[in-house]
Amino acid sequence: MKNTRSVSEFNTELKLKGFNVFQIESDSNATRIYSRKDFYKICLTTGESKIHYSDRSFNHKGTVLFFGNPHIPYSWETISTTYTGYTCLFSEAFLATSYRSESLQQSPLFKLDGTPVLKISEEQRLFLNTIFKKMIEEQKTDYSLKDDLIRNYINLLIHEALKLEPSQNLHQPVNALTRLANVFIELLERQFPIEGMAQPLKMRTAKDFAEALSVHVNYLNKAVREVTGHSTTTHINNRIANEAKALLLHTDWNVSDIAYALGFDYPSYFNNFFKKATQTNPGAFRAAHS
């Protein structure tokens, strides 16, 4: 289904509702018109593609059910010209009221070392199609409890998937350190640009990223240094400093607001960080470039 709305309009609506369900018809770009850092994804697709998820890759032809976690980097290479199916996007907050058994990040479908891709038979595809169609129909109604109903459909998809056998085609790349370093860089970049103060930066240390990637911080540090020649902390600090410069130059936020948006508890901490990184303070930097 061709989507004539802009990416901005789509993301704004998605953030307001906390979910969106839509059909994919021939246009595989429809799977990419949202901000992956904010939303979980369940995608039922038929076609040929290659999925890279954290440090694993999956090549497939036919129908698969995919579970995407916004905290784990992944990418999707569409190979076939015809690619159809359904996509459901939702925030953790939207599903939180009903998904009580465990957090989404600990679910075997969404966790780093879990099973995000499942092969689907034709019989299973027809059944899952029905669930997606019901969600699409329901989100168009004015039913006062439609959010609860859609949550139930999402949970049904999750439970149906948990009953399926995981795909065996996921594999470790030859150089795991290189893949981990690349995953870290992608996850770091995904936090930027900062779009507003409502969502301050959450991962600011090597430990934060190691926990998000479910690896020991020493292993992450080793991978990043061996592959890039620089420490994990250096990459993080350089990226935060560059974002701080951009916010100082291109927004009218005061220094306290910028400090908060970048995850600093106090403006004085941000001032010290910025001066160490640039040899000047935020106010002087802004004034010099205004």
What are the main properties of this structure?
six-stranded antiparallel sheet, disordered N terminus, alpha+beta, 290 residues, 2 domains, Arc Repressor Mutant, subunit A, single chain, 11 helices, 6 strands, Jelly Rolls
What does this structure look like?
Pfam families: HTH_18 (PF12833). The chain has 290 residues and is α+β, with helices and mostly antiparallel strands. The chain has two domains: 156 residues, Sandwich (Jelly Rolls); 113 residues, Arc Repressor Mutant, subunit A, CATH 1.10.10.60. Helices cover 45% and strands 17% of the residues. Helix 6 packs across helix 7. The longest helix is centred in the last third of the chain and has 19 residues. The radius of gyration is 21 Å and the shape is globular. The protein starts with 6 loop residues before the first helix and ends with a helix.
